[in-house]
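Lecture 7 notes: from sequence to structure.
We start with the chain below.
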Amino acid sequence: MQLKIVKTKKDYEKSLERFEEIFQAKNGSAESDEADVLALLIKEYEDRHFVIDVPNPIEAIKYRMEQQGLTNKDLAQILGFKSRVSDIFKKNRKLNLGMVRKLYHELNIPLETLVREY
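Predicted structure tokens for the same chain:
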């Protein structure tokens, strides 16, 4: 396959097909080198065409709670008060620095996400 910048959906699909054929090639082989370059070209196309927005803090908290099977009561134990959880989810209260630190350490939510406006 001749390597070129992936510009169209058709190019993208062909590149993926070829990558699937050769991605387990032996290190140092021509196919391995081709797979490395294809991976970069595919990534560059995906970065341009499949942009995923970073969630707002509330969405991130709810998502992490769902992942870990946590309830509002569990979150209240992390933040200190049950009423805070309700106020935060209703957007009546903003996260303060202490809450951000606790959520970061306890739920491993990235700081960049927790400090975003919502």
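Points to note: The chain is about 65% helix and 0% strand. The chain has two domains: 9-49, 57-114.
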